[in-house]
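User: Design a sequence. Structure:
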């Protein structure tokens, strides 16, 4: 019974994904949605089960299983632009397909429920960046650089808008090559920034345009790391291990960099008095 309780959240999560999978399959009459959401739900549920049974690489397992599926299968094999340009493209086309559904679920409305879980468990850019040597940032954040994400956001929108306004030919092919080129650019910039700032997640903090959606929505996230401030002894360990510099020992939603939390639980593992949960 104790074991069942331990794995209950994983089971609930799996069933939630299955509900989405079956609903979309039947509503849109497309078997792809059954396969897609069942696969993602299974990976996340297995990862959660691994986490509760103390497996060290549970998060990395989910990150690779989901991230590489999206990059390789959806992006390269199925030629669906899953980057932000793809989102604008399908919006302009008025198509509610994989990329728009993906953005709605993982990056716009989903964060109201699970915050920036996408960034911790599924993003194929971070999947590679997390392999670099600077898991814990070596220096404080460069506050002003965060504005660059808005520049990237506007540029991505302007690029796709220009393609539509100029009635560019072979748009689908252009979007496919944009996806490949965009990913190469993200990886190069991400690796460069990680070494420049000695911080694996520097790209996420300063450049990633998707955070323009993720940050405001995750402020209201139902699921978040909470701190029992009466237990906290202010040792600072949680902030030292946090890849996103979150002031997690402050329980308020207004905690510094609170909307940057990727739910990796490194802080929870590190807290000596179990004040975080
Ligand atoms: S901030 Fe952007 S690059 Fe970083 S994990 Fe999130 S979506 Fe991926
Ligand atoms: S270490 Fe804690 S506060 Fe920092 S990102 Fe991970 S879960 Fe969030
Ligand atoms: S690790 Fe725990 S005790 Fe130390 S500052 Fe963070 S919450 Fe407080």
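Assistant: Done.
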């Amino acid at each position: 019974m104790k074991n069942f309780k331990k794995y209950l959240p994983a089971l609930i999560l799996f069933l939630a994904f299955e509900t989405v999978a079956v609903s979309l399959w039947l509503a849109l009459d497309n078997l792809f949605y059954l396969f897609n959401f069942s696969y993602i739900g299974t990976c996340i549920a297995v990862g959660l089960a691994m986490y509760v049974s103390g497996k060290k690489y549970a998060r990395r397992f989910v990150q690779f299983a989901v991230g590489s599926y999206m990059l390789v299968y959806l992006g390269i094999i199925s030629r669906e632009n899953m980057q932000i340009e793809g989102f604008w493209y399908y919006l302009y086309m008025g198509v509610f397909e994989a990329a728009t559904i993906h953005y709605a679920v993982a990056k716009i409305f989903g964060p109201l429920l699970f915050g920036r879980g996408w960034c911790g468990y599924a993003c194929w850019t971070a999947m590679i960046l997390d392999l670099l040597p600077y898991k814990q940032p070596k220096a404080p954040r460069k506050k002003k650089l965060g504005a660059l994400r808005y520049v990237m956001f506007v540029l991505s929108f302007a690029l796709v808008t220009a393609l539509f306004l100029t009635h560019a030919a072979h748009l689908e092919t252009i979007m496919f090559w944009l996806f490949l080129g965009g990913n190469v650019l993200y990886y190069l910039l991400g690796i460069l920034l990680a070494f420049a700032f000695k911080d694996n997640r520097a790209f996420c903090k300063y450049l990633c345009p998707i955070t323009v959606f993720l940050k405001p929505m995750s402020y209201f996230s139902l699921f978040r790391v909470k701190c029992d401030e009466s237990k906290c002894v202010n040792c600072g360990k949680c902030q030292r291990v946090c890849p996103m510099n979150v002031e997690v020992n402050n329980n308020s939603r207004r905690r510094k960099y609170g909307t940057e939390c990727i739910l990796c639980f490194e802080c929870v593992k590190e807290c000596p008095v179990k004040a975080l949960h």
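The chain has a mean pLDDT of 93. The longest helix spans residues 2-28.
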